[in-house]
Amino acid sequence: MLKWLKHFIEQSWLLMVSSFIFGLLIAVTYAAWQPRIEANKTDKLNNLMSALISQADRFELTLEDVPVDLGKGKIAKTDIYKAVSDDGGCLGFCFDAQGPGFADKIELVIAVDFRFETIGSYKVLASNETPGFGDRIQNDYYRRQFDGAPAGKLDLSKTGPADKIDDEIIAISGATVSSEAVVKIFNNYIEQIKTALTKEGMIGNADK
Amino acid sequence: MPTNKTISIGDTFLAGLWRENPVFRLLLGMCPTLAVTTAVKPALTMGISVLFVLLCSNIVVSLMRNLLKPHLRILMFTLTIATFVTIADLFLKAFLPEMSATLGPYIPLIIVNCVIICRAEACASKNGLFISIIDAIGMGLGFTIVLCILAAVRELLATGAVFEIPVMWKSFVPWAAMRMPVGAFITLGLMLGLVNLISRKKA
């Protein structure tokens, strides 16, 4: 036993010592830069929310870690922010939403009105969709179709008038998978977020 | 007259820039070469990140080269490289968040960049600290310069700008294909052909 232990230590001491030192190095670096990384994420989220609801004076965290069923047993957690005007009224809600895209996960920030009746468009928080094709989900041409669309189930069509605002979204030519991914994200989140806000009695009350 | 040592140091440095350039001569690190060269800024960031990781891993591997067991060699290289890649990734997320988002998964993917593990195996594990540092700087600079040249050509033709500064005439019609993978393959292929032609003429 002692011989085996000696052999084990002789063979692996460098790996163990290195792992410890490297682990410590990463932990120290992470601890030093993590507040800044979190601040960057918050800044980006705030900027995107401000771009979506430009009349908002500030955004208040209303519900934290709301579970959203993404299907196939996957549960994601999201935070819901309330857009507050300078007189304290509620202008709408924003939340981050995610789902699988063509290349990688797509993360969106979605805005809805305070009655949760219409969508106020979206912004892309993170995406690695194909340049020139899938990344066109960030373009106004596609995003505009969501601006004012009913906050319910959306359908994707390959052809049709893209300037008509309704529950039918026209896919981006050459990027059907990415277009479909965005619509799926909306369909997954809108109903469940609405339910969560309804439970808290927060929908439709502009003063709340 | 230069000593053998100075020739060796100069040769080691210049090898990465031309004779053994990781992209043009060894065809290593193709993934970032093709993926992040849509514009000069991400290409430069990627190049500097690789240079940092290469330098740090070469230093560590060279320092522990006499302690390395043959069967743990690759594991130790990977562990070392992964540590410095994580640090580079955290740095970009903290100080250059927009660039970190642009580069996406390609920064963590430096871990599997063959240039770095190749230099750890071929140079740092067999040479002293000084030569390993010179090798890392030469190879890292060679990689960065090639990425920037490729990116400059692609950005110029795809957007009419270099470093986001417009340089083409007003009526220039951007070649959208240069932003896409096909643009990367065509540009790299033409450049490899050009490098081979120059090398053949030199020989």
Backbone shape of chain A: elongated
Helix content of chain A: 25-40%
| E-strand count of chain A | 8
Mean pLDDT of chain B: 90
Count of all domains of chain B: 1
Poorly predicted runs of chain B are: none
The secondary structure category of chain A is alpha+beta
Share in β-strands of chain B: under 5%
Quickly list its features:
heterodimer, A: 208 residues, alpha+beta, six-stranded antiparallel sheet, 3 helices, 8 strands, B: 203 residues, mainly alpha, two-stranded antiparallel ribbon, 2 strands, 69% helix
What topology does this entry show?
The complex is a heterodimer of chains A (208) and B (203).
Chain A: H1 2-52, E1 58-71, E2 74-84, E3 90-100, E4 105-113, E5 118-126, H2 140-143, E6 147-150, E7 155-157, E8 168-170, H3 176-199
Parallel strand pairs in A: 7-8
Antiparallel strand pairs in A: 1-2, 2-3, 3-4, 4-5, 5-6
Chain B: H1 4-19, H2 30-35, H3 40-63, H4 73-95, H5 97-103, H6 114-124, H7 129-159, E1 161-162, E2 165-166, H8 181-202
Antiparallel strand pairs in B: 1-2
Helix pairs in contact in B: 1-7, 3-4, 3-6, 3-7, 4-5, 4-6, 6-7
